[in-house]
Amino acid sequence: MRPNEAVEVPALAARLEELKRRAAECIEASSERLAELSREIWSRPELAYEERHAHAAMTRFFAGCPSPTSPAAAWSVQRNYKLETAFRADWQWDGIPGEAGQVLPPIRVGFLCEYDALPGIGHACGHNLIAEVGAGAALGLKGALENIRQSSAAGPARQAPAVQVTVLGTPAEEDGGGKIELIKAGAFDDLDVVFMAHPSQEDAAYLPDVAEHDVTVKYFGKAAHAAAYPWEGVNALDAAVLAYNNLSLLRQQMKPTWRVHGIIKNGGVKPNIIPFYAELEFYLRTPSLRELSILTEKAENCFKAAALATGCEVELKSGPNEYFNVLPNKSLEKAYIENGKKLGMDFIQDDNLNGLSGSTDFGNVSFVIPGIHPYFYIGSDALNHTEEYTTAAGSEDAQFYALRTAKALAMTALDVIFKPDLMEKAKEDFRIVRLKEEVDLNRSEHGKGSGLGIGAACASR
Question: How many CA atoms does the CB half-sphere of 426 hold within 13 Å?
Answer without folding.
Answer: 27
